[in-house]
Amino acid sequence: MNSPAAPHSVMTREPLEDGLIGYHCLESGGIFIMADSYWRWLQRRPSRLPHLPRAWADEPSRYDSTSAKICPETGGLMQRYQVGHGFDFFIERSPTGSIWLDAGEWEALKKRQFHDELHLIFTAPWQENIKHEEIAQNEMTRMSERLGQDLVAQLSALKEALEDHPDRALALSFLNQE
Q1: Cα–Cα distance for residue pair 111/92, rounded to 1 Å
Q2: Domain region containing 156
Q3: How many domains does one find in the chain?
Q4: Strand 87-93 to strand 99-101: parallel, antiparallel, or no bridges (unpaired)?
Q5: Quick one: 36 and 79 in the same domain?
Q6: What is the pLDDT of residue 31?
Q7: Are residues 27 and 108 in the same domain?
C-alpha cells in the first residue's frame, strides 16, 4: 500500500495498540489506519479514556501537511478535518472512513487520550464545537487587548464565582451601578 503523503513510498504494517494495526510511511512519518481495523479495535476497548489537558511544553513539533492526500485504498481524495480541543493540526479521512495522521499526530492524540475518539472528529457536533472554541478564544483575545490580561483574569474568576451563586443577579446589579 502506497503512502498518501509520499505516493512513491510503500508503507510498512505495524501495531499501534494491542489489536490496532496501522501502516507507517517511513518517508513522511505519517500513519494510515484502515477503518475496519480501527472499528474492531474500538469495539474491544472497555470504555473511552478521559481526556487529558494540553501540556504546552510537552507538545511535539509536527509538520501538518496541507497537500491533498489520495486514499491508498480507493484512489479518491481524502478530506481534511480540524482536530481542535487544543490540537492545532488536521487529520485526513478517506471515502472509506480510513484515517491519515501526519508525523507525530497519533502520538499527540494518544498522549492526551483522544486516540480512541478519532471517529468523532469527523462529526458535525465535533466540528461545530471547534468553531465555538475559536470564537470564544477570539473574544478573550480582544478582551485582553482592550482591558488587559490582569483585569480579564479577575473578571474571569468573578464570573466563575458567580456562576452558581444564589444571589448572582444581585451581584450583577451591583456591578452595573454607576
Answers
A1: 19
A2: 128-176
A3: 2
A4: antiparallel
A5: yes
A6: 96
A7: yes
CB 8 within 8 A of CB 26: no
Of 38, 42, 51, whose CA–CA distance to 86 is shortest?
51
Note whether 94 and 76 are within 8 A (CB). yes
Residue entry with cell 468573578: 158
Tell me: do 118 and 38 sit in the same domain.
yes
Shared domain for 16 and 87, answered yes or no, is: yes
Are 29 and 94 within one domain?
yes
pLDDT at 57: 45
In the predicted model, residues of the chain with pLDDT beneath 70 are 55-64
Give a yes or no: residue 7 inside a domain. Answer: no
Residues whose CB is less than 8 angstroms from the CB of residue 139 and which lie 6 or more positions away in sequence, other chains included: none
Count the neighbouring beta carbons within 10 Å of the beta carbon of residue 114: 20
Give yes or no for a contact between 42 and 119, defined as CB atoms under 8 angstroms apart: yes
Residues 87, 161, single domain; the answer is no
Q: What is the pLDDT of residue 49?
A: 83
Angstrom distance (rounded) from CA 95 to CA 117: 18
